[in-house]
Design a protein that fits this description.
The protein has helices at 47-58, 67-75, 109-124, 130-137, 166-182, 243-247, 267-270, 290-304; strands at residues 14-19, 29-34, 37-39, 82-85, 95-101, 150-157, 191-203, 238-239, 253-257, 277-289. By secondary structure, it is α+β, with helices and mostly antiparallel strands. Helix 1 crosses helix 2 (67-75). The longest helix is centred in the middle third of the chain and has 17 residues, at 166-182. The chain is globular. The model is unreliable at 6-27 and 213-233 (pLDDT under 50).
Length: 308
């Protein structure tokens, strides 16, 4: 089974906009044309880049896992999944997407750790929908049926990489799974589980020069994934990956969960990025049945490039 991955050559460059750093008007914008290229995962070049992206994806809980082993497992299936680069195949990836068969790789320590972690987060989080996800990963299922074939989708990209790179990665994953099944490889999934991230905004704990010293301070909520943050009665969920909101429409179950390792004091403020509010990251899971996956991928394409 052979294939390519240099689709950057036959695609229009993806443009990003940023403010000029000179004395020109603040309203003047500079257009930066960047030509992205899609490649197969390359063991020779991508190990460190994948570790960096995995660390970003798993946030504070990344230290619970052997990221080297996880990166090597991803690189052990070079005909499945994609990386996105700018300056050729020998550079570090700016984004990646892959799928791992949790049943097939259950003997790998890092997959056992990931599966146990997901089960733990599902059982300790408030949204009851996460219990549906846990049921798909248990060996001793209540109804006595065999454990489903769950494909764990891991995907991450550097900050400011546009969502435009996402539809090709999902589209190629579909194609690659189809090829793999023709070769009788173990990718006949019943479900896809996307492990991702979301966040809520929280009030700053840093007092400004005009703040009243006697003003009562808000307390952080101790609730799980569905709880409120920083005393807000209603919290809007924001997505690090905008496409996740689209995927949720086709989900059998989805929900947020708190990270196992508590973030250091002031971590939310460190991520304010010139805003009044800090951000509180949380893990996010989306479970999609295989029968709905094609429609979900098409919906991502429509979301990113409407009318095309």
């Amino acid at each position: 089974m052979s294939k390519r991955k240099q689709k950057g050559e036959d695609k229009d460059p993806i443009s990003g906009r940023g403010s000029l750093n000179d004395e020109s008007s603040d309203e003047e914008l500079d257009t930066l044309n960047v030509e992205f290229e899609w490649f197969d995962p390359q063991p020779t070049h991508d190990f460190q880049g994948l570790k960096t992206l995995l660390r970003q994806l798993l946030d504070v809980d990344s230290q619970l896992f052997d990221l080297s082993a996880l990166a090597n497992l991803i690189l052990s299936q070079p005909l499945l999944g994609s990386t996105v680069k700018v300056d050729g195949n020998e550079t570090d990836p700016f984004a990646f997407l892959t799928v791992l068969n949790l049943q097939e790789h259950r003997g790998q320590p890092v997959i056992r750790d990931l599966t146990s972690y997901i089960l733990d987060r599902c059982t300790r989080s408030t949204p009851s929908s996460l219990s549906i996800i846990a049921d798909q990963l248990k060996d001793d299922r209540p109804d006595g049926t065999s454990r489903p074939q769950v494909g764990l989708i891991l995907t991450e990209r550097l900050i400011n990489i546009p969502t435009d790179v996402v539809p090709p990665m999902y589209g190629m994953l579909q194609e690659e799974i189809s090829w793999a099944l023709e070769e009788k490889e173990p990718y006949n999934f019943t479900h896809y589980l996307i492990l991702s991230k979301s966040y809520t905004e929280v009030a700053s704990e840093i007092k400004g020069p005009n703040d009243d010293d006697d003003r009562p301070q808000k307390k952080k909520s101790k609730k799980g994934g569905g709880g409120s943050a920083a005393g807000n009665s209603k919290n809007e969920i924001f997505y690090f990956h905008p496409e996740d909101e689209v995927l949720e429409r086709y989900a059998l179950a989805h929900g947020r969960f708190d990270y196992k390792i508590e973030a250091a004091e002031g971590a939310s403020d460190s991520k304010r990025a010139f805003q009044e509010l800090g951000i509180r990251p949380q893990g996010h899971m989306i479970l999609i049945e295989a029968s709905e996956f094609e429609k979900a991928v098409q919906a991502i394409k429509d979301f990113v490039s409407p009318g095309q």
